[in-house]
Every structure is written in C-alpha cells, then in structure tokens.
C-alpha cells in the first residue's frame, strides 16, 4: 500500500513536481528534519536547569533579535508568494500571509517592549507587548492550520479572480493593514487583558495563551501529519515542533519571565523555527535555478546537434550526388551536340544518353546508400568480392584521372578472406580516397603522378586496403582535422568525404586512417573484418 506521503496528488501538483509545496520529501530531507528536531531537543534539555537565570540588561539585544526575526519572516513570505505565483495555490498564499502577519507584528512588539525604545517615548501600556505577543502566537498556528486544511481541496476551489499579481498585491495590502490596524488598536487601547504583573513577570491570565497555543500547534501538527505529502508539509511540522520547544522554554521552563535564560533560549528557538522554511525555500530556489540552467544547456545542445546532423546529412548528400550530376550534365550536353550536327550522329548521341541513364542510376543508388547510412537498422550486408569492387571503382575513376594526367595502378591480393558489406557504400569510400589522391597531385610537376591502390589480407582475418599518392602530403597543421565534417583545404571542397568514408568503414566494423607516404604524399588505409559467412559475392557494379 502507498503511504500517504507517496500517494498521488489530486490537483495540478503533477504539473509542478519540483516545487517545495508539491515535491515529496526525499530520505535526506526527512533525516535532516529529524536531526534538526533532535538538536533543538538537546538544546532544550541543556538549557532547562538554567532557564530561570535572569539576564538583566539584555534588552539591548532585543532590537537585533526583532530585526532578524522580521527579515526572516518577510523573506519567507516573499518566497512563498513567488511559489504561489508559479502555482496559484491558495493554501500557499495563506501560509505566506501567516508569515507576513507574524513578521509585521514583530515591529510593534519590539517597539513597545519595556525598556528598549524608551528614549523615543515608545513605552506604551505595559500590557501592549504581551497582547501583541499573544496575537502573534495564536495567529500563526491558525494560518498553518488553514494551510493544512486547504491544501488538498484546491482542485475543487475556484481559481482566484484577477491576475496572480493583483491577488498578491491585494493579499499583502490586506495582511499589512490588518497587522498594523490591530497593533495600533492594541497600543491605543486603555483597557487590555492583564497578561503582565510588571515589566518582567507574567500574570496568571497569561497561562491561557501558551496553553491555547500548544493546542493549536498540536492541531496543526495532526492535520499536517494526516495530509502530509510535500517537503513544505514536512518542514512546517518541524516548525510547529520547534515552536512547541520555544513555548516550553519561554512559558514553562522560564516561567514566562522576560529576559531570563529560558526566555532568550526560547526566542532563539523561535528564530531557528522561522528560518527553517526560509532556508528550505532558498535551497529550492537554488536547485530550481541549477535545474533551469541545465535544461537550457541540454536543450541548446540537442538543438545544435540536431542542426549539425541535418547539416551533415544535407552536405553529404550534396557531396555524393554532385559527381553523378556533373557527369550527367556533361553527357547530356555531348548528346545534344551530336544531335545538333548537320547530320545528327545518332549512335554517339545514343551512347551519351546511355551514360546519362547510367549516372542517374548511380545517383539513385548513392541516395539509397546515404539513407542506409543514416538508418542504421536498414543496412544491407552482402558477401562481396572486394577486389572486384575496387576494380569497378578504379575503372570509373579512370576518365577523371586521365583528365588530371594521373595514372592509377593497383596491386590487389587474390587471397583476401571473404567479407560482407554494403557494396554501394564501400565503392563510395574507395572512390572518395582515389578522388582525394588525384586532387592531392594536382600541383605536382616534378615526379610521376601515380595513385597506387593495394589490397591485402591482414592478421587475423582482416583485409587492409590502401590508397597511396605522391601528392602534397598531409599538412601537419591539419592532419587531426581532416576527418572532421566540413573541413576542407580545397577551394570547392565540402569536407565531407573523409568523414563520410570513416563512418561507413566504422559501421562495417573497420578503421580508416592516414599516414605519410615516403618521400612524398599520403596513404589512406582502411580495414574490413573478414567474415566467416560463406556466400556468393554480390557487389553489383554501379551502373
Ligand atoms: P574535400 O575533399 O571536400 O576537401 P575530404 O573530407 O575528402 O573533403 O577531405 C578533407 C581534407 O583532407 C581535404 O580538403 C585535404 O586537405 C585533406 N586530404 C584528403 N585526402 C588527402 C590526400 N590524399 N593528400 C593530402 N591531403 C588530403
């Protein structure tokens, strides 16, 4: 069975699972809450024997205490309002009002405290401070109680009218006028309940205040306990327990005598209690900020990598398709020229059109190959004759090589282990390496311009293919970057060929790398794993 704290939320809490008022407490938070309570109980036990010791002259510390309490309660209220603005929970708004009300009442309480602001003539009726203290003490648990009772019914309560901002401004104004209005009535009143015997000691009537407060704290604790779900609920329970400890110190162990050690210890307990929710809210804010920063960062990364993948895809398509397209244009223009002659040369035009058809098929196969490369599950692997595949590519590259006055030589070992692969993709790899080798020798005039292609078996059961040239060689400044997408030193280069070739080879379980050729040029090597699968080699030449 689910414990209450893990039970599913019934309202919009699911939309904000990370807020203090919605997220269930984790084990660390529960342990921390237990630890805080234990520490305060120990402090209570240590202080108990000395609680009645009088610390005369300590009034001077009271403004500092009051200022700290005011600040802490106002900040807590502000952070709870911020939480309300995210998720317009009336319960959170009520709790925030409770902190605001209690915080604001600290001002008249401190100002009227006997012997503190006497210089400013602010000593009012002896009963004013105690009456304000009673209102504070009894009102705060009422706000907590209201929070606990409302928090689960929010789904059935109408959304606050008007914008969230108007609700916040309205509630702050209402609470402030209530607090200051009440304080001014108390300060001006001639007749107030006799809570104090003198400036230090409480009268017998006072005993009802802590008793009523204890009842309210316990009622708050019970209603939070049965409805507890969120981290905020957990810490509010700790706050109420701390207030109980404070009351024990102030009113029972310290006998309600002002400025006694028990009284001061109780005050600091109260300050600790007020700070607790604030600290938890602050840590929540920091966590939320960190989470926001992380999610913005990962969202940006995801967008960038999506863009890069799309750029890589489109660039690789352009790179692989440009070659057959250029060749189709050349053949089609040649065909037109043959037909435009006075006596149309039908045979030659026919041959040119056949080349167009062949290149069209090639382009389509290339596109299919690219699609296969990016769709990993759809990769075709067939037994292939690697030497035949290389020879087909070299045959097709011959025309271009002749144009660049480059000769191609091949030394292909007839005893290669059987292998499987995607013939179209592997033809693209060899074609890319040969085209690069031809390009690299474009500026060479002082030595033979030869591309030398070899294939050989390698231990264990691997095949090594090398494409060697006597060109400019690998520039030491760039050799680490030549496999990066879009890296090119050629004026019209796209810088996709090597990246594309390497990913094809690696998808086949092989490696592709480059070394220097001695004394000139570069050698590009790639390996392919041999396969144990016997089958009929089926590397259809690209038509
Ligand atoms: P592209 O050919 O469009 O420039 P590649 O990815 O095929 O793209 O090559 C990237 C770069 O690697 C080339 O621009 C060139 O600088 C370098 N490169 C490739 N092959 C050779 C080679 N055989 N000799 C020297 N440099 C080479």
In short:
The protein is an alpha+beta fold and 543 residues long. It has helices at residues 27-47, 62-86, 90-111, 126-150, 164-188, 208-227, 231-253, 261-340, 346-374, 386-403, 423-440, 497-507; strands spanning 382-384, 407-412, 419-421, 450-458, 462-468, 512-516, 522-529.
Please give a structural write-up.
The chain is α+β, with helices and mostly antiparallel strands. The chain folds into two domains: 7-300, Rhopdopsin 7-helix transmembrane proteins (Up-down Bundle), CATH 1.20.1070; 380-529, 2-Layer Sandwich (Heat Shock Protein 90). Helix content is 58%, strand content 8%. It contains twelve helices and seven strands. The protein has helices at residues 27-47, 62-86, 90-111, 126-150, 164-188, 208-227, 231-253, 261-340, 346-374, 386-403, 423-440, 497-507; strands at 382-384, 407-412, 419-421, 450-458, 462-468, 512-516, 522-529. The strands form two sheets. A five-stranded mixed β-sheet has the order 2-4-5-7-6. β4 and β5 (462-468) form a beta hairpin. α1 (27-47) runs antiparallel to α8. The longest helix is centred in the middle third of the chain and has 80 residues, at 261-340. The chain is rod-shaped and about 125 Å long. The two termini are 69 Å apart. It binds adenosine-5'-diphosphate. Adenosine-5'-diphosphate is lined by residues 432, 436-437, 440, 469, 471-474, 478, 482, 487-490, 493-499, 522.
């Amino acid at each position: 069975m689910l414990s209450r704290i893990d039970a599913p939320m019934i309202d919009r809490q699911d939309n904000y699972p990370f807020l203090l008022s919605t997220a269930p407490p984790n084990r660390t938070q529960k342990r921390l809450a237990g630890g805080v309570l234990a520490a305060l109980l120990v402090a209570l036990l240590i202080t108990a024997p000395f609680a009645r010791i009088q610390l005369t002259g300590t009034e001077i510390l009271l403004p500092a205490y009051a200022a700290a309490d005011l600040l802490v309660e106002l900040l807590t209220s502000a952070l709870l309002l911020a939480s309300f603005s995210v998720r317009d929970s009336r319960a959170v708004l009520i709790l925030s009002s409770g902190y605001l009300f209690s915080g604001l009442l600290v001002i008249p309480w401190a100002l009227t405290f006997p012997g503190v602001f006497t210089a400013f003539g602010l000593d009012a009726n002896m009963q004013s401070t105690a009456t304000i203290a009673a209102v504070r003490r009894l009102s705060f648990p009422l706000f907590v109680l209201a929070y606990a009772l409302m928090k689960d019914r929010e789904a059935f309560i109408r959304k606050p009218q008007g914008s969230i901002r108007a609700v916040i401004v309205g509630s702050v104004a209402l609470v402030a006028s209530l607090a200051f209005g009440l304080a001014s009535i108390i300060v001006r009143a001639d007749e107030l309940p006799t809570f104090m015997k003198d400036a230090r000691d409480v009268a017998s009537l006072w005993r009802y205040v802590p008793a009523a407060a204890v009842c309210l704290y316990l009622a708050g604790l019970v209603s939070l306990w049965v409805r507890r779900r969120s981290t905020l609920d957990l810490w509010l329970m700790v706050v109420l327990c701390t207030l109980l400890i404070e009351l024990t110190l102030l009113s029972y162990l310290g006998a309600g005598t002002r400025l006694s050690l028990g009284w001061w210890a109780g005050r600091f307990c109260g300050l600790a209690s007020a700070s607790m929710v604030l600290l938890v809210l602050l840590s929540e804010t920091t966590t939320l900020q960190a989470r926001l920063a992380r999610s913005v960062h990962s969202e940006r990364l995801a967008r960038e990598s999506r863009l890069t993948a799309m750029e890589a895809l489109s660039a690789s398509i352009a790179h692989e398709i440009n070659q057959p397209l250029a060749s189709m244009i050349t053949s089609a223009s040649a065909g037109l020229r043959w037909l435009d002659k006075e006596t149309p040369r039908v045979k030659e035009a026919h041959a040119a059109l056949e080349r167009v058809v062949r290149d069209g098929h090639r382009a389509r196969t290339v596109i299919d190959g690219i699609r296969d490369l990016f769709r990993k599950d759809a990769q075709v692997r067939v037994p292939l004759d690697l030497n035949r595949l290389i020879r087909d590519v070299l045959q097709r590259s011959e025309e271009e090589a002749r144009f660049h006055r480059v000769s191609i030589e091949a030394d292909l070992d007839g005893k290669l282990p059987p292998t499987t692969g995607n013939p179209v993709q592997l033809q693209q790899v060899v074609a890319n390496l040969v085209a690069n080798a031809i390009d690299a020798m474009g500026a060479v005039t002082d030595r033979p311009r030869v591309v030398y292609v070899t294939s050989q078996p390698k231990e264990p059961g691997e095949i090594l293919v090398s494409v060697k040239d006597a060109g400019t060689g690998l520039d030491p400044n760039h050799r680490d970057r030549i496999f990066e997408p879009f890296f090119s030193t050629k004026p019209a280069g796209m810088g996709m060929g090597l990246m594309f070739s390497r990913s094809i080879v690696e998808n086949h379980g092989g490696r592709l790398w480059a070394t220097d050729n001695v004394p000139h040029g570069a050698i590009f090597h790639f390996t392919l794993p041999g396969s144990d699968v016997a089958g009929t080699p089926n590397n259809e030449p690209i038509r």
